[in-house]
Structure formats: C-alpha cells, structure tokens
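Subject: for your reference before the review

Hello V.,

The reviewers asked for a structural picture of the protein, and I figured it would be easier to keep everything in one thread rather than splitting it across files. Below is the amino acid sequence we used in the manuscript, unchanged from the supplementary table.
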Amino acid sequence: MNKKLKFSWGHIVAFVAIIFVAFVSFIGLSFLTSGKFLLAGFGSLLVVLILLICFLGAQRLKATDCNFEKSIKKERILVFVTPFIFVVVMLPFTHFWTVHSHQDQVIGDFSKAVAMSENVFVEYEKYANVRINKYQSMLLDVVDHRDSNYRDYAACGFSDISSTKKSSQVFNSKPPAKKHSDNKTSQTNAYKPSKADSLMINTMVQTLKTQLLSHNYDILSSEARKWIASASKGTTTWNVFLIGNMRQIDTALSQWQRHLVSFADRKISNEEFGDKNKVEPFDNVSTTIAQARAKLHGVNDIYRDFKFPCLIAIILMAVVYAALFLPYYIQPRNTKVRFDFWGKNNSGESDIYDDERSSNNPNIKTDNVCELDFDNVSPSDEESDWTSITF
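And here is what came back from the structure prediction:
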C-alpha cells in the first residue's frame, strides 16, 4: 500500500487510448496544415506529452510517500486544471471526426475531380478534331471555288501547275456538258479537286493533326491517365496521404493545361485564312480543368474548415478522458496520509485540524502516525497504564 506507483490494467487502457489519440490527432493536424506531415507529427507528439504529464503526473502526486501537504495541493490543482487542458489539446482529435462526418462528400467530390482530370484529355482531343475538321472543310471550300476566287486558291498554297491543267480540262469540257444539260444543272457546274489538290489537302490536314495530336501528346496522355488511376486509390478520410494526392493532382492539372495550351497554339500558316476559319485558343474553350480544380479546392476547404466538434467527437473525448483517468483512480493513496483528496481525515475532520495540532505541539508528526492494533492486546496489556502511551 505504500509503494509510490502502482502499475495496473488501467495503465494498459490509458496507453492504448494515448496511441489512438496520437494517431487521430496526427491525421487531424495533417488536415489543418494541408499535408505538412512533419509539423503534424511534432504536434501529435506534443499532445501525447501534455496528456502524460497531466494524467500520470496526478497519479504520481497521489502516490507520494513524503511531503503530503504540498503534494496534495499540487494534486488538486492538476486534477482541476487537467479537464481544460484536455479540451484544448484534443482539438486536432475532434477536427478529424468533424471531417470524417463529411466523408461521403469528400469521397464524392474527390472522385468527380479525378474523373474530370482524366476528361481533360478527352476534351482536348475533341477540340483538336474540331479544328482539324474545320480546317479540312475550309480547304475543300477554297478548292471548290477555285474558278470564282482563284486568289484564295493560290494564297492557300495550292499548286498553280496542277490547277492550270485542271482548269484547261474543265474549260474544254464545258460545251459538251452544256449541250446535254438543262439550265438547272448548268448552275451547279463547279471546279472539282484534282488528285494533286486532294493530295495537297490531305498533306495539310495531316500536318495539322501531327502538330495537335503529336507523339508528345500521346506520351503525356498515357502517363497522366496511369498516374490518375494510381492517385485515386484509397479514397477515405483515414488515408492521410489523400491530401498529398489532391495537392499533386492540382499541380498536375496546371502543368497539363500548360502543355495542352502549347500543343494547341501550333497552327498551320494557312489555317486562319482571312475570315474563313478562326482558331479559338484551347484555354478559352476548356472548362474541365477549372471545374476539376474547383472540386479539389472544395475538398481542401472541408479539410481545413475548423468547426464545433460533432457528437461522435464529444463522445469519444469522454471515453478517452475516462481511460486516461483510470491510473489515477486505481492508484491507492499512501497509508501515512490521514486525509483524503478533499482534505478530510478518517473521522471526517479537515486536515487543518491536524495542522493546528502540529503547530501546538511541535513533537507531533502527522506524517508518521502510530497505528495501534487493538485486536491483539493481551490481558496484561489491558491492565497497564494507558496514560503512558504518547503520541
């Protein structure tokens, strides 16, 4: 009963609770610091250290075998202050559970952001194909109206030699066609592309396609899709690395956008020909990147937005406090102490009474009280002079 500290099952429960608090506090601090793991680790260690000082310190003061009066005063102060300290240091712990209560929204928004990230390349390929089709249509239109607007035909880079031969053939074939056609069909007579014109059109279109959908784009798209698939795994609030994945995806989206804009800025010299074809910049057309980044920023706001603790956080705080309080509660007080935590001795009197006795008689030591065993008194002892016993 007079041992300083008593190790019991309560310590095991308390240590398990501290490990749980340290892990959850680390995740909560990671949320608040946007994935700064070193700072979160230092903060969680500080939380553990403060809890150990408060709860085990109170147990140590309760088990002291000397300086009882000073120790119990310190014990009272520590026991009364500990709940307030506990609430403060448990704020990262409660923040995790607040974020965890929005897990469905976090997972949903993150999954949408990942899907949008992959759709960036789908959007770019659609943009590139639209540009290629418009360019091809513009070239065909210029060739079809070669006779009526030969200047545009030549300015687009078509060969004069091939067009001259074709023009001669068309001119010589007009009278027979006119002879066997009525007025309605004669109005639709137009220049038809020659093989040289068709070859030139295919070459120009293929050149634009190679620039917009180059080999570098294929590599970027393939690697990005693989990386997105791996980054989207383990989507849960318990996964502390999800914050880092979101930050990396956000950074990657900015890099991908710069690459895609640089690909889209490549133009054929005759792609924007007069007012026949206007090329729209990709960043003016793309909306997927902005939407994906907005979703990621929304999830990050949930992580960093500190709110009043939810119900499950409050309940778990109470359970953890009880678990940490067990070692102090189980620890017996030294038998030399004649008063309890509230200053009452065994007969219900205050410890001030003992102090007054000590001040009136300096020879009395309240810390070391003689304990008499009246059950084992012999008959000869009963007849002895009890006045000879001094305290």
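For the response letter, the relevant points are probably these. Residues 108 and 246 are 13 Å apart (CA to CA). The radius of gyration is 44 Å.

Happy to draft the paragraph if you're swamped.

O.
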